[in-house]
Structure formats: structure tokens, C-alpha cells
Design brief:
five-stranded mixed β-sheet, disordered N terminus, single chain, about 25% strand, alpha+beta
Length: about 260
């Protein structure tokens, strides 16, 4: 996925039902708002005062109508409550067979480690069709682990463990964000979730895929040792931005221009 929308295409078992609930609430609220507006405008035109001496006709209550607009919304709200409660308990209770992955949030990166020892930074590989349980904590301030396409988000807190689970249903690449403002470079605390077919994921896992190429290894070190804190952004001339530097011309202090290699 190369773009973010209000509701990006769902790609997890939780997201499908969440979408139905969300759009049902939007449709219900839209219908009620439109109905109130139509009735308000119609009655304003029909029953407006036509002369200074006009006395309005007294209208007695209609018990059937009053009972209907009390009972029907009551059952609708109970239905919404029951549906949302069911989803809440499903989201808060990871399946027993979920694969556990440990997550540490720190300014400004995500560090992830599998139970088999592989480690990643700002990248998460998961198999399609298998529930994934994330056990998360923060090394410094409050962060929030957010995957829009999976419709899951959970605060990551210092000195405390929180959990989050999902099950990818479509292979692909999905955005990963920190959704809680956590400092000056909060906007740079982003990454990717790669949902892979089970066979491809097993090959990736067995052949040290988490270590990656020389370039990806360098990227991990760049974040691991905090280089990204100063060299990932323009910092008012104090630190040069090293992102995408390789292969580009660079002017040295003596004025000489060389190609970064």
C-alpha cells in the first residue's frame, strides 16, 4: 500500500467486521440527521405563523407514535452495543495459538524481536492467516502502535506491558505508525508491516531474513545507535541529513566535491 486514506483497504480478520460497524454507524447517523433536517424544514414551512392574530391549533399527544420512537431506537442502540461489545472482547483476547512478537518503542523507532531470535527495526514480517500477538513496552515515553489497514492501535507505555493482536488476510506491505505524539521527530517514527504467504514467511524466517542485505543491516545500525535522531532530518544546519545520501555529490569542508560511496 503506497497511500493512506481515511479507511485504507482492510487486510485483517478484525478489519472486515470493524468496517461494517463503522459504516453502519455512519449510515444510521446520516439517516437520522437527514430525517431531522427534512422534518424540521417541512414543519417550519407548513406551520409557520401566517398572521399576528393567528392562534395555533392544539395537538394532543400520540402515545403510539411516542412509544414507537422510544422503543425502536432503544433496540437499535442495544444491538449496536452488543455488536461493539463482541468486537471489543475479540480484540482484547488474543487467540491461544497466536505467534508472539515482542515490541519496544523508543524515540524514535520500533524495535521488534521474534521468539526465534530474529530482530527488526521499523519493520515487521508476519504470515498471512496466522494470528499475531504483540507484547509491547516503551523505553522512554508513551507511544502508540498503529496499523491502519488492520484497524488496530494500542498505546505502548513505559514500565508496563500492553498487548495487541491481528491476523493478516492479504499478502502485501502496510503502513506502520506511531499515533501518539512522542517528541520532535514523532513524524519519523514510521515503518512497514509485510504480510507474507506462510511458505514465503517460513523461508524468510529460516534463512535469516530478519538480518537482510548489507543496506538493510546498515539501516538497522543507523537506528540502533541513535544516528537517526540527528541525521534523519534537516536540523538547521547542525547535522547533515544522511538519508538517500549514497551515490550523490557531497561538498566537503575544504570545498572539494566527491560522490558518497
Amino acid at each position: 500500500m503506497d497511500s493512506i486514506q481515511l479507511l485504507p483497504q482492510s487486510a485483517s480478520s478484525i478489519a472486515g467486521e470493524w468496517n461494517w460497524l463503522f459504516w453502519m454507524l455512519v449510515a444510521l447517523c446520516g439517516f437520522v440527521a437527514a430525517a431531522i433536517a427534512v422534518v424540521l424544514i417541512t414543519w417550519t414551512i407548513r406551520y409557520h405563523r401566517k398572521s399576528e392574530n393567528e392562534l395555533p391549533r392544539q395537538i394532543e399527544g400520540n402515545y403510539k407514535l411516542e412509544t414507537a420512537w422510544t422503543i425502536i431506537p432503544l433496540f437499535i442502540f442495544f444491538g449496536i452495543y452488543g455488536w461493539a461489545s463482541k468486537m471489543y472482547f475479540e480484540i482484547e483476547r488474543p487467540p491461544n495459538n497466536a505467534r508472539t512478537i515482542y515490541v519496544v518503542g523508543k524515540q524514535w523507532m520500533w524495535k521488534l524481536q521474534y521468539t526465534t531470535g530474529q530482530r527488526e527495526i521499523n519493520t515487521l514480517h508476519v504470515p498471512v492467516g496466522e494470528p499475531i500477538k504483540l507484547v509491547m513496552t516503551s523505553q522512554d515515553v508513551i507511544h502508540s502502535f498503529y496499523i491502519p489497514a488492520f484497524r488496530v492501535k494500542q498505546d505502548v507505555l513505559p514500565r508496563r506491558y500492553t498487548t495487541l493482536w491481528f491476523q493478516a488476510t492479504k499478502a502485501g506491505r502496510y503502513h506502520l505508525f506511531c499515533a501518539e505524539y512522542c517528541g520532535t521527530k514523532h513524524s519519523g517514527m514510521i515503518g512497514w508491516v509485510y504480510a507474507m504467504e506462510p511458505h514465503d514467511f517460513q523461508i524468510w524466517l529460516e534463512h535469516g531474513g530478519a538480518e537482510g542485505s548489507l543496506a538493510s543491516t546498515g539501516e538497522k545500525l543507523f537506528h540502533q545507535f541513535g544516528c537517526s535522531n540527528c541525521h534523519h532530518f534537516e536540523t538547521q544546519g547542525r547535522c547533515p541529513m544522511l538519508r538517500d545520501l549514497y551515490g550523490r555529490p557531497v561538498r566537503l569542508q575544504g570545498g572539494q566535491i566527491i560522490t558518497a560511496d
